[in-house]
Amino acid sequence: MKLLTLNCHSLLSPAYSRDCENFVREVLRLRPDLIALQEVNQTRTAPPAAGDLAGWTPPAAGALLRADNHALRVARMLQEAGWPVHWTWTFAKIGYGRYEEGLALLSPGPLAQAEDWFITRSRDPENWKVRKALSARVTLDGRPARCICVHMGWWGEEEEPFPAQWEQVEAGARQGEPCLVLGDLNAPAAERGGGYDFVTGRGWQDAWALARQQEGEGSIPGVIAGWEDRLVQPVMRIDHILTDTPLEVARAAIVLDGRDGPAVSDHYGVLVTAKWRKTT
What we know:
This protein is 16% helix and 33% strand. By secondary structure, the chain is of the alpha+beta class. The protein has a 7-stranded mixed beta sheet with strand order 3-4-2-1-13-12-10. A 6-stranded mixed beta sheet has the order 5-6-7-8-11-9. Helix 1 crosses helix 2 (70-80). Keywords: Endonuclease, Hydrolase, Nuclease.
């Protein structure tokens, strides 16, 4: 199975249309079995989406799709190219005063039991610290798994502490069923004593660390929005694919970085090729 996560920073670039086209082209080249996207925006004043919603599975609580929703645009482009995408999206908070920012999961296979829930105490969409998780049940490598997409806050945040957010993420896992968490954790893998160590210390394994072959280094190119006043390391991998079930990972790679595919966001993608480890 191939797993891809990307904070796509959608609608914000002057070259958005080109970036979207490049992203779709790379998806068709890479053929991932699951895609987790963060900062999946729609303009808050755009009209509701109309027409064919292209494989849309709303979360149980529902969500209002608008005409310029990024995930909807990507899904339509993929379907037009012959890729049978199924997807779900949720709105979490207002971004930059203009956008309804959310999370999305996409797969060529069916999604089931789509759910979303708040992982922060605040649920005010005007509060930029508000965070949600989005999950769906997806069959990967012949086995149903719970897949959770996240965009976490920062370690050290007092108002919405990272540990409390992560505990709410874990609440979406299902006992006896494999669980994968994919997304932007705002947690550098090389930073000790922060969010990455907290998560892996609770038994979650980083697919990157498990990989026999690793290609690339950081998932952001340097100082980006939100990191201006924070400690920035020379190379930061803050986007992760985590598992609570043993994986055999053949390859983990930074993609969509201008080297392995064109850069389409202020983040790069993380792509993992893996299979479930056989247990006796």
